[in-house]
Amino acid sequence: MNKQSISKLTLLLMGLENRFDENKDIFNEIVVTFFAGLKSFKGIGKYDDNNINFNFNGKTNKLSIKDLNILICKEAEKFDSLQILYKERGTGILIEGSNEKVNMKNINIKETIDDEIKTPHNKTSTLLNRDYYIKVGEADSLLKEIGIMSKEGKIKNDRIRKYNQIDHYVELLEGILHKLPDNETINILDCGCGKSYLTFILNYYLTEVKKRKCHFIGLDISDEVIKSSKNMANNLGYRNMEFKAIDIKNYSPDKKIHVVISLHACDTATDMALALGIRLNSDVIIAVPCCHRELLSQYSYEPFKGILKHGLLKARMADVITDGMRSMMLEGNGYDVSIVEYISPLETPKNLMIRALKTKNENKNIKDAYVTLMNELNANPALYNFLNNW
């Protein structure tokens, strides 16, 4: 390539250098192909601790992005043309250069799927007739990692229901997450993350489908599940995730938290996560409560004495009171709250999702009504105690 083209290539690569520094957490690889006549020579660079391992001409060198760009320009002098494919999760940049011109364009990156895999699983008749948010073919690596898809590229028969559940989870969050600021990295805190399957799903969707910059923090008291989540993130190349084995009460973030999530946290662990979200003034709080034991042994209401003598009805009423009072406390702290069915009640009676979006200042009247209800029900909810005594 001539000097004029290489000068323009140098300028474009400087921009690429800045992009790498800003987006290194979602960088996948860089593929550089040099052309001389009908022959082509390919170099592939993979991420390695803020640098790039670049394999070219049978050698692998660990280079900074700046040094790699210098190498590319130097090698370009020996060839007629080149193509640079800079891949990030879900998106990328294509640079093509020759003696006549050098240009750059943004492209969408989709996973390469073998032909023998592509046809059958796109026609799987057992899946629901819906336009999936997490699509087979594009999210295969993720679906395989979390055990939804087989190595052959088909949704496992015994995991079809789970696949539909996780896709519906994304659907329920879509309407609320798009209201988050789009000019900053969205920090999402998963309290009691467990193996983090749904957090990995959300990471994929926000990063690769919605093209949003995001960072995930998973907290769990179990060292074993944190180790498992770290391994999954490493396998997938999801460097915009961190996991900590810590009690939620001992956690103090070093950055603004935009979203707090609590999925299937048992009993008052949900209240702990809600309290943390309120205390951090999180923009969004999402909770899918699990068992409700606390208020069952506490509450009483004289007008309902004839009804609550039946244990089953008292337990169901305890569930409603628990989640209803959680909703009131969120509203009292300035959140717009909606409670929706997450999955069918045929799957589990614990099927509600609480979605809260911070829109206003606290409402003293609702807080006073909450305290009045506590007294009338002879109940002392954990959420109230966490907020006032933590």
Describe the structure.
The protein has 390 residues and is an alpha/beta fold. 39% of the residues lie in helices and 25% in strands. It has helices at 3-23, 65-76, 115-122, 140-145, 160-177, 197-209, 223-236, 268-279, 305-308, 311-332, 364-377, 382-389; strands at residues 27-36, 39-48, 51-56, 59-63, 81-88, 91-98, 102-108, 186-191, 214-220, 241-245, 259-263, 284-288, 335-341, 352-358. Strands 4-3-2-1-5-6-7 form a 7-stranded antiparallel sheet, covered by helices on one side. A 7-stranded mixed sheet has the order 10-9-8-11-12-14-13, sandwiched between helices. Helix 1 (3-23) packs antiparallel against helix 2 (65-76). The protein is elongated.
Topology of helices and strands:
Elements: H1 3-23, E1 27-36, E2 39-48, E3 51-56, E4 59-63, H2 65-76, E5 81-88, E6 91-98, E7 102-108, H3 115-122, H4 140-145, H5 160-177, E8 186-191, H6 197-209, E9 214-220, H7 223-236, E10 241-245, E11 259-263, H8 268-279, E12 284-288, H9 305-308, H10 311-332, E13 335-341, E14 352-358, H11 364-377, H12 382-389
Parallel strand pairs: 8-9, 8-11, 9-10, 11-12
Antiparallel strand pairs: 1-2, 1-5, 2-3, 3-4, 5-6, 6-7, 12-14, 13-14
Helix pairs in contact: 1-2, 5-6, 8-12, 10-11
What is the gist of this entry?
The protein is of the alpha/beta class.
List keywords for this structure.
25% strand; 390 residues; seven-stranded mixed sheet; alpha/beta; 12 helices; 2 domains; Rossmann fold; SAM-dependent methyltransferase
